[in-house]
Design goal:
It is a single chain. Helices cover about 45% and strands about 15% of the residues. By secondary structure, it is α+β, with helices and mostly antiparallel strands. A 3-stranded antiparallel sheet has the order 1-3-2, covered by helices on one side. α1 packs across α2. The chain is globular and about 40 Å long.
């Protein structure tokens, strides 16, 4: 499992729950399921199976990248 925590400002480290939700929704629209976690729901968890192929991993990371860009 790998997780990414999203904050509104790196200095204050205020959780960014809204942006996290936008990223998860944008990824879902492209067929990628991401999980939110954390006390403030500002963490995105990724759980790749041990048998994932390089092509599948690249596709998932590309979708996640586009979702992050769309939510910016």
């Amino acid at each position: 499992m790998v997780a990414v925590e999203l904050v509104k400002d790196p200095e204050s480290k205020a959780p960014d729950k809204e942006r996290t939700a936008r990223i998860v929704e944008a990824a879902l629209q492209e067929g990628l399921l991401l999980l939110t976690a954390g006390q403030y729901s500002n963490v995105i968890r990724t759980l790749m199976p041990l048998v994932i192929t390089d092509e599948e991993l690249e596709e998932g990371l590309s979708i996640m990248g586009r979702a992050v860009d769309a939510a910016a």
